[in-house]
Every structure is written in C-alpha cells, then in structure tokens.
Design a protein that fits this description.
Length: 304
C-alpha cells in the first residue's frame, strides 16, 4: 500500500461522538438500598425547595402507602411550573448550587427504584395553574430520551402556595417497613418538626420529631457564674449575655437576633478565631497551674 492509499484509508483525524443510552438508568435506579432510602430522597426534594417565604411558611409533606401505589405530596414550598418541570426532567444537571442533589437525578431515580409508572402534578407558588405529566414505562430503554406533554388545569387550592405530587404505580417488589420509614423521617427532619416549620404524615398519621432524652447516668449540672466570667468562658461580650438574660426574663428569648443581619464570612471567621484563641489561653492557664502544682509537690517538705 502506497502513501496515498494509506492516507485515504487511515485519515489523520477522525471525529468521534459520545452517546448516552437510557440503559445506564438501571444502575442509577439501583443506587438505593431500600424503599425507605428512596422515599427519603423524594421527601428531601420537597425540603430543598422550601425556604419559609416563597410559597408558604410551613411545609406539609403527606406520604400515602397503598398496595397499588405510593404517593408523596408536598405543599407550602416553591413548587414547580413548566420551567422547573423541564429542569427536573434533565439528568445530570439540576442547576442547583448546593452539593446535595446538584446532579439532578435523585428524585427521578427514586421513582424508578419504587415503580415503573408515575404521575407528577405540580404548581409553582406564583402561578395559578396545575401541570401534569405521565409516564407508563419508566424502565423503557428502547429510546435515548423521552418527551412529555404537560397538561394544564386550574389548581383547586390556595393560589399563593407551591404544590407537588409524585404518584408512583406498577410498584416493584420492595419490603415496606413503615416503622423504619417513620423513624428515619423523625430523625432526619427532627429540628424542623420541633420548630413547627414542617408537618410530615404517613397515611394521615403525623410523625413526631425523634425524642433525644438524656441517658440515665447523666446528671444536669448547674453553674453559678458572674456575668464577666460567663462572657469570658463563652468568648462573648458581657452586653450580649446581659441582653439574653433580660429577654429570657421577659419571655422573649426566641425573638433575640431576628432583626440582626447575617454575619459576613469575614465576621464569622473572626469570631471563630477569637473563640479558638480564648480556648488556647484557657488551656495555657490550666497547664501553668498544673505545672506549678506538680513543681510544688516535688519539693521536699511540701507534701501534706
């Protein structure tokens, strides 16, 4: 073969194209270890879109477990319109800035783990319409991508709240451990449940926040400190602690700090360094006292 024939058969460069098959979704669906994990992912999506301002100040999450379907409803957050639905359907890019869920596959993968058919209904908090899309064969790998027609209806509820409903059908065989699901949710969202910012129910029964009692051997100890000493130990201005005490006596401790602006990163770093410096000084003082004590004990005639 001469040089001309070789160049014709083997060009100097060849363009190659990456392709993605929906078959890869089988491994994505399999990332969950249990039904509890998959449900937690769907519930977590609701909390991701809840900020306490847009769409409501209280988030309601209702989970319905039946023989033929599993539904996760949430209302009170931002919800989704058609733009958000389009983003939700994109694998690998959720346009989120937080690390959790930034690849945009958790909720969809959870639904694929739970069942093979689903109906999604949603409403954006600032829009009057309820949108719906349906999937009857989520495991289908005969196409590289799917298209959906979102249908619009009037939302039968408060117009200024967000709403999302994920109903999953054609359920796959998974053990339904309601006790474990309740315990996981009670632990994961304990703080929000305790603060009255969220309500979670399973089949209409509300979940109480996980109780974390002190163990039997622990004894509550009380210390009586002067205001300057307490401020020194906490590395805080005495005036701040004084304001807390006044607010506590007036029954308004929960309102302290609501009108303050958030600290900047520099201020937070400065506070952290001050706290570390105070701890180092305290450790230094303890070591000095210990060294003096043992030095005195080692001298002849000083032991009691």
């Amino acid at each position: 073969m001469n040089e001309t024939e070789s160049k014709q058969k083997y060009p100097e460069s060849v363009e190659l194209e990456e392709k993605l098959s929906r078959k890869i979704l089988r491994s994505v669906f399999a990332q969950f270890q249990s039904l509890s994990d998959a449900l937690l992912e769907l519930v977590d999506n609701a909390f991701d879109e809840f900020d306490g301002f847009h769409g409501g100040s209280h988030l309601y999450v209702d989970i319905w477990l039946t023989k033929n379907s599993i539904t996760v409803d949430n209302r009170g957050g931002k919800g989704m319109g058609t733009d958000e639905l389009q983003t939700w359907l994109e694998w690998g890019d959720a346009h989120k800035t937080n690390a959790i869920g930034e690849y945009g596959q958790g909720g969809k993968a959870a639904m694929g783990y739970i069942g093979n058919s689903w109906v999604v209904q949603c409403k954006h908090w600032n829009e009057p319409w309820l949108w719906e899309i349906r999937e009857n064969n989520w495991d289908d790998t005969s196409v590289d991508h799917k298209k959906y027609k979102a249908t619009r209806t009037k939302f039968d509820g408060k117009s200024d709240i967000g709403y999302c409903s994920f109903q999953i059908r054609k359920l796959k065989k998974h053990r339904v451990d309601i006790k474990r699901i309740r315990e996981t949710l009670a632990n994961t969202y304990r703080k929000l449940l305790e603060d009255g910012k969220a309500t979670i129910t399973i089949n209409g029964e509300a979940i109480s926040p996980l109780s974390l009692p002190l163990y039997d051997g622990y004894k509550i100890q009380r210390f009586k400190l002067s205001l300057p000493e307490a401020a020194r130990r906490l590395s805080m201005p005495p005036s701040s602690i004084g304001n807390w005490l006044k607010a506590h006596k007036a029954g308004k401790l929960g309102e302290v700090g609501k009108s303050y602006r958030p600290l900047t990163e520099i201020e937070m770093e400065l506070a952290r360094m001050k706290k570390e410096l105070a701890e180092v000084k305290m450790e230094r003082d303890i070591l000095k006292k210990a060294a003096a004590y043992f030095a005195r004990e080692s001298l002849p005639g000083t032991r009691q």
